[in-house]
Design goal:
- The chain has 585 residues and is α/β, with parallel strands linked by helices.
- Among the domains are: 161 residues, ABC transporter transmembrane region fold (Up-down Bundle); 173 residues, P-loop containing nucleotide triphosphate hydrolases (Rossmann fold, 3-Layer(aba) Sandwich), CATH 3.40.50.
- The protein contains 24 helices and 10 strands.
- A 6-stranded mixed sheet has the order 6-7-8-3-9-10, sandwiched between helices.
- The radius of gyration is 35 Å and the shape is elongated.
- The chain starts with 8 loop residues before the first helix and ends with a helix.
- It binds adenosine-5'-diphosphate (ADP).
- Adenosine-5'-diphosphate (ADP) binds next to α4 and α15.
- Adenosine-5'-diphosphate binds next to α4 and α15.
Length: 585
């Protein structure tokens, strides 16, 4: 597989291009044929000119040459077009392969990596970066081939006509090469600034739009806008600076390179006056010299595209190089569906947040995890769902270390209902069906009833057929979570991890959540990360987590007796409820 960093962009690209190797070779062959045909009009015209200068002509001969020139031109256009078609097909195959590789990769990297990546980055790579490759990939092969090959062929023909004029037509090349080198000096570094500024602007835009609600609510417009405006300004400055640094050389090179006649015209005239070259040859050489440089300049314009392709492909390579969760492929045989932590430690980068915790969550029961904010509750939930691996110690499901259970099997075993429940832009019915794609409508409604969301769904304008996107903005955090619970009920996996939504604290909502949790519990290992203690007073076991350690465990009543921290949490919760009721009242 890929090993991004040590691989050059070209190797990575070639890897993706393997399935369309035939098409790419076809594209090159057609482009070469097109370039060869492109020479025919020049040769035909030069033959015609030489004939005319020799006064050795007949209309039929000239008409024949014109026909040949036309056929050559047609050949150039047709072969060129077919070559471009083939290279477009290849480009689309390459883009598809890159996109598939990225999505497959995303399914193999730990979920935690995805959560830790700034939102927008994957979207930018999959959509924008990959899209940027289309144009250069689709056009580079035929156009570069033609634009390099045609001048080379012309030069060969020029040499065959008159080596002195051929040589003098090259006189501007060293000056042009000097300008090109000037343009290319530190090119990668300078162009990298342009690319970085563009990416930074994309990220700032995504953040600004994504956080617009907070920006408006907290009147942060100016500050957040400044970040966005700065990114836009830097994007402009980077481009203008790059343009200024490059453009002088570019214009100079362009003016000098194209001035092939500077040498050809005086030398040619001198040779002609002295009878050393024939009029026909001179005219032909002038025409060829005129046409020599333009394709080369067009080829040079691919410099930017090549740098851009290089950077885009490397970015894709880096993503494909992200460490993966290494899990076996063979299904594990589990004794049961209980969950246990055995001296588990875990750190986010530098900071250790779980310090060797051990506990068991029995099957057919509800284990609640409570504790102050930041104590590590959600981290525990995510370790059960294999979002990350434990640093040391081991998480077991049914007695088996999760590292020995294939990820698809974990996905079957565990339903993780997070706080942040994403609803797709589908009907509510389809959103619930995600839990079990083959579920009937009746099963979906039964699950919704169990999750206590049937009533509010039925009250929506189009009931279960309401698009979540339309209803989405009206659904409360609690309602969204109940839809996610309905999904989990439908999925019917033996382990359910519920990270309770913190959004709603009013007692009415609590009762509904409690009812929906009851819908989940039957016959399952239910683990609830509880932010409202009253929803879990009936739990079979409550773990009190404090600063990454299990401070106490027991039932609600036992803990009220034995754990000071639990007592404090309970007191704070009851006070919070009273305040909520007062506010509501
Ligand atoms: P809780 O659910 O109890 O509020 P968490 O498990 O979310 O606690 O967090 C435990 C600690 O880990 C906190 O200090 C939090 O700031 C930190 N933390 C949580 N998620 C991340 C993350 N993705 N990267 C770095 N630190 C994190």
């Amino acid at each position: 597989m890929m090993t991004g960093k040590e691989n050059s962009a070209m190797t990575i690209l070639m890897d993706f291009a393997k399935p369309c190797k035939g098409k790419l070779i076809g594209s090159v062959v057609l482009a070469v044929l097109g370039a060869l045909c492109g020479m025919i009009p020049y040769i035909a015209v030069s033959r015609g000119i030489i004939m005319i200068c020799h006064e050795d002509y007949a209309f039929s001969k000239l008409a024949f040459l014109a026909l040949i020139a036309f056929a050559g031109y047609l050949g150039q256009v047709w072969f060129g077009t077919f070559s471009t078609m083939k290279s477009h097909e290849s480009a689309f195959i390459i883009l598809r392969n890159i996109r598939v590789a990225i999505t497959e990769k995303l399914s193999r990297v730990p979920m935690g990596t995805i959560l830790d990546t700034p939102s927008g980055k994957f979207k930018t790579i999959i959509v924008d970066t990959v899209e940027k490759l289309e144009l250069p990939l689709a056009h580079m092969v035929p156009e570069l081939t033609a634009n390099i090959l045609i001048p080379v062929l012309m030069l060969v023909y020029l040499f065959s006509l008159d080596w002195r004029l051929a040589l003098i037509s090259l006189v501007t090349i060293p000056v042009g090469a000097f300008c090109y080198m000037g343009m290319m000096k530190d090119y990668e570094k300078r162009y990298a600034r342009v690319l970085a500024a563009g990416k930074n602007m994309d990220a700032a835009t995504v953040e600004y739009i994504g956080g617009i609600e907070v920006v408006k609510t907290f009147n942060q417009g100016e500050r957040s806008y400044k970040k966005y405006a700065d990114a836009v300004a830097e994007n402009e400055t980077a481009k203008v600076t790059w343009f200024k640094q490059t453009n002088g050389y570019y214009v100079m090179g362009l003016s000098i390179l194209t001035a092939t006649l500077v040498g050809v015209l005086p030398l040619g005239s001198w040779l002609f006056i002295n009878g050393r070259v024939e009029a026909g040859t001179l005219i032909t050489c002038i025409i060829l010299a005129l046409g020599l440089v333009k394709p080369l300049i067009q080829a040079l314009q691919y410099t930017d595209s090549l740098a851009m392709v290089d950077s885009a492909v490397k970015e894709v390579g880096d993503l494909l190089d992200e460490p993966e969760l290494v899990r076996p492929t063979e299904r594990a045989v589990l004794a049961d569906a209980d969950v246990s932590f055995d001296r588990v430690t875990f750190r986010y980068k530098e900071t250790e947040v779980l310090h060797g915790i051990s506990f068991d969550c029995a099957k057919n029961g509800m284990t609640a995890i409570v504790g102050p904010s930041g104590s590590g509750k959600s981290t525990i939930a995510r370790l059960i769902a294999s979002f990350w691996e434990a640093e040391s110690g081991c998480v077991r499901i049914g007695g088996v270390d999760v590292r020995n259970i294939p990820l698809p099997q974990i996905m079957e075993l565990v339903s993780y209902v997070s706080q942040d429940n994403f609803l797709f832009h589908l009907s509510i019915r389809e959103n619930i069906r995600i839990g079990k794609p083959e579920a009937t409508d009746a099963e979906i409604e039964a699950a919704a009833k169990k999750a206590s969301c049937h009533d509010f769904i039925a009250a929506l304008p189009e009931g279960y057929d309401t698009l979540a996107g339309d209803a989405g903005s009206h659904l409360s955090g609690g309602e969204r979570q109940r839809i996610a619970i309905a999904r989990a009920i439908l999925k019917n996996s033996p382990i359910v991890v519920l990270d309770e939504a913190t959004a709603f604290t009013d007692p009415e909502n609590e009762a509904v959540i409690q009812a929906s949790i009851a819908g989940l519990v039957a016959g399952k290992t239910l683990i609830v990360i509880a932010h409202r203690l009253s929803t879990i007073t009936k739990a079979d076991k409550i773990l009190v987590v404090e600063k990454g350690n299990v401070a106490a465990e027991g039932t609600h009543e036992e803990l009220l007796e034995a754990s000071d921290l639990y007592k404090e949490l309970w007191k704070a919760h009851m006070q919070g409820r009273d305040t909520a009721e007062e506010v509501a009242g």
